[in-house]
Every structure is written in C-alpha cells, then in structure tokens.
Amino acid sequence: MILDKTSETLKIIQHLRDEAHRFGITFHRQIRSKKQVLSELDAIKGIGEKTKIVLLKKYKSLKRLREVPVNELVDLIGKSKAEMLTKGLEKK
User: Fold this and answer.
1) CB under 8 Å to 84, separation ≥6 — which residues?
2) CA trace torsion 21, 22, 26, 27 (10° rounding)
3) Which string of DSSP letters, residue by residue, matches the chain?
4) Distance of alpha carbon 49 from its chain centroid, rounded?
5) Is the pLDDT of residue 91 over 80?
6) Do the Cβ atoms of 10 and 3 come closer than 8 Å?
7) Is the pLDDT of residue 88 over 90?
8) pLDDT tens across 12-32, in order?
9) Cα–Cα dist 28/35, whole Å
10) Are 76 and 54 in contact (CB under 8 A)?
11) How far is CA 69 from CA 4, 64, 73, 86, 88, in A?
12) What Å distances lie between residue 37 and 11, 55, 60, 63, 79, CA to CA?
C-alpha cells in the first residue's frame, strides 16, 4: 500500500507509531529507574520501607549496617526485626 506523503492517513499512522514508541520508551525508563533504587534490604522479609529508610538514614550504607552490634539494632528497630535483618545480611 503506497500512501502520498501529504495524506492525512499517513500522518495518522505516523502519529500512532510515534505514540507507541513514546509509550514503550517511558515504560522502559520507569522499570530501569526502579531497578536502580532497589537495595539488599528489600529482599529481607520483615523489613519494610519505613524500617529501610530509618536504617539508611542512620547508617548511610549496607557496609556500615553490617558492622553495627545487634543490641544497637534492637534499640533502633526492635528485637524481631533486628534478628531478621542480621540473618538476612549474613546470607548475602
């Protein structure tokens, strides 16, 4: 099928193509940016978003968090979460 370069039909088809590409690129960028925000803390069962924020604000990195004594973690986030966290970080 050959369409004239100035026809409205061709312009509509091109517009549909451009919108499909825009949608695909936007979706891909969203997925890529979410992957870059993930942390090892997300994989530990029982550690939610709020606890993760509290831990990262205080200790700044996972390396420092691994060096923290368990009793300090218990004071900050509670005994059960501290146990889940230490077990989760030891596995990695």
Assistant:
1) 44, 45, 46, 47
2) -40
3) ----TT-HHHHHHHHHHHHHHHHHHHHHHHHHHHHHH--GGGGSTT--HHHHHHHHHHH-SHHHHHHS-HHHHHHHH-HHHHHHHHHHHHH-
4) 11
5) no
6) yes
7) no
8) 999 999 999 999 999 999 988
9) 11
10) yes
11) 74, 10, 7, 10, 15
12) 39, 15, 14, 17, 27
**Residue labelled with tokens 């973690």:** 73
Which structure tokens are listed for 43?
């994989």
pTM: 0.55
Report the distance separating Cα 31 and Cα 27, nearest Å. Answer: 6
Measured distance CA(35)–CA(29) in Å, rounded? 10
